[in-house]
Q: What sequence folds into this?
C-alpha cells in the first residue's frame, strides 16, 4: 500500500489472473488507511495484522466470508450470498451506469483482451478505474 500515491498493488503471485493488479484507492479508503497508519504499533508489519500474531501474520483471508456467514440475518442476505457476490454487485452497478466494460474489467482485474488488442493495447486505464472506484465508494458511503 502506497498512501502517498494512493495505490494498493497486489503482486502477480496473489492476483487471480496472475498479473500485478494496481488498485487506485478511493478517498474513503485512503482516509481509513491513513487512520490505521496513525494508530498502528511501530512494529506492525501488516496494514491489518492478525490479533493473535500481529508481527508474523495478517488478518486471515477468510475473515470477511466468515463474518458474513455468521451475521447473514442481521445483514439481510441469504445463504447463497458470499463475499464474492460483491464483485457481481459492483459490476452490475457499474454496468447500470454505462461504465465501459474495459474499465469494469480493469477494476475487477479481469483480462479479456482478444485479437489485436491482446498484443498492442497496453492501456492501464488507471484514471477511469480510479474514478470508478471513487464513485463506488461514494455510493456505498451514501
A:
Amino acid at each position: 500500500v502506497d498512501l502517498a500515491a494512493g495505490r494498493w498493488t497486489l503482486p502477480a503471485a496473489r492476483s487471480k489472473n496472475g498479473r500485478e493488479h494496481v488498485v487506485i484507492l478511493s478517498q474513503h479508503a485512503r482516509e481509513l488507511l491513513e487512520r490505521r497508519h496513525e494508530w498502528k504499533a511501530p512494529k506492525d508489519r501488516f496494514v491489518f495484522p492478525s490479533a493473535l500474531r500481529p508481527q508474523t501474520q495478517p488478518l486471515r483471508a477468510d475473515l470477511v466470508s466468515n463474518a458474513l456467514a455468521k451475521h447473514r440475518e442481521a445483514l439481510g442476505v441469504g445463504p447463497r450470498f458470499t463475499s464474492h457476490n460483491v464483485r457481481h454487485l459492483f459490476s452490475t452497478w457499474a454496468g447500470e451506469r454505462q461504465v465501459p466494460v474495459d474499465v469494469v474489467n480493469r477494476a475487477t482485474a479481469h483480462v479479456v483482451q482478444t485479437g489485436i488488442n491482446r498484443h498492442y493495447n497496453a492501456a492501464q486505464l488507471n484514471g477511469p478505474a480510479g474514478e470508478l472506484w471513487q464513485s463506488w465508494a461514494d455510493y456505498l458511503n451514501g
